[in-house]
User: Which sequence fits this backbone?
DNA sequence: GCCCAGGAGCCCG
DNA sequence: CGGGCTCATGGG
């Protein structure tokens, strides 16, 4: 994993697409969906919770389906930790139906809500990153990518999120083999691309945007138009 | 009809 | 540790 290539690619993406301002909020924010260059984001626990719910709901699922589910959550007044913690999965499932795997995800959301009641956002934010990560991973339904998304976007911990897109793109560009275990790939990136909250958020958002342009449908382009030389 | 989406848990060799 | 299976809706 070359530091200069990783850096160059970041700037190419930024030049092509501009700041992405992830994570998109629409339920708990009356302001803009995206938060370009806004270091004070997220601003409150309700926004942090929305990010956590989205991180679970988007597991192997297109964002559009997640939006529909989150709208139902809001409509039912369920953007609320206490309610989510107590609501039986059979009752929550139909609400998030559009996000798919709704029986599983209803359980996962309940697990996470009960965890967050025991570990308030402020506590998780102050905790050392690796300790907060370990705690999140103890929740059934929170795997590595979901944990890192929550850490990065909801808890302001500078961790690099590896997802199917970033792995696919880095592999195509020859940055990595593509078969590395999650932790190993994340560690390689973070060793070469210094931890920085805003840059990590942007890089992930940019990779997803780039993937939607060139890495959605097979066959992928022979040569990535933004490949740094 | 088919393929895929911003994965995770479980089981099995 | 790695691979295969299950979970499910909605859009292209």
Assistant:
């Amino acid at each position: 994993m070359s530091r200069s290539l990783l850096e160059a690619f970041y700037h190419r993406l930024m030049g092509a697409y501009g700041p992405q301002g992830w994570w998109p909020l629409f339920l708990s924010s009356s302001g803009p969906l995206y938060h370009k260059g806004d270091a004070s984001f997220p601003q409150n626990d309700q926004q942090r919770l929305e990010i956590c719910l989205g991180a679970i709901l988007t597991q192997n699922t297109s964002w559009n389906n997640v939006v529909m589910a989150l709208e139902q959550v809001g409509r039912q007044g369920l953007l609320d930790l206490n309610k989510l913690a107590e609501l039986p999965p059979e009752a929550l499932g139909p609400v998030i139906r559009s996000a798919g795997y709704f029986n599983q995800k209803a359980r996962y959301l309940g697990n996470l809500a009960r965890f967050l009641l025991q570990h308030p956002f402020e506590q998780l934010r102050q905790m050392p990153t690796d300790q907060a990560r370990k705690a999140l991973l103890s929740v059934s339904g929170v795997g590595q990518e979901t944990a890192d998304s929550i850490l990065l976007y909801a808890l302001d911990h500078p961790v690099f999120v590896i997802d199917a897109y970033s792995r696919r793109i880095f592999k195509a560009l020859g940055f990595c083999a593509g078969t590395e275990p999650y932790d190993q790939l994340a560690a390689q990136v973070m060793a070469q691309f210094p931890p920085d909250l805003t840059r990590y958020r942007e890089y992930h958002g940019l990779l997803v945007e780039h993937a939607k342009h060139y890495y959605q449908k097979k066959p992928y382009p022979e040569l990535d138009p933004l490949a740094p030389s």
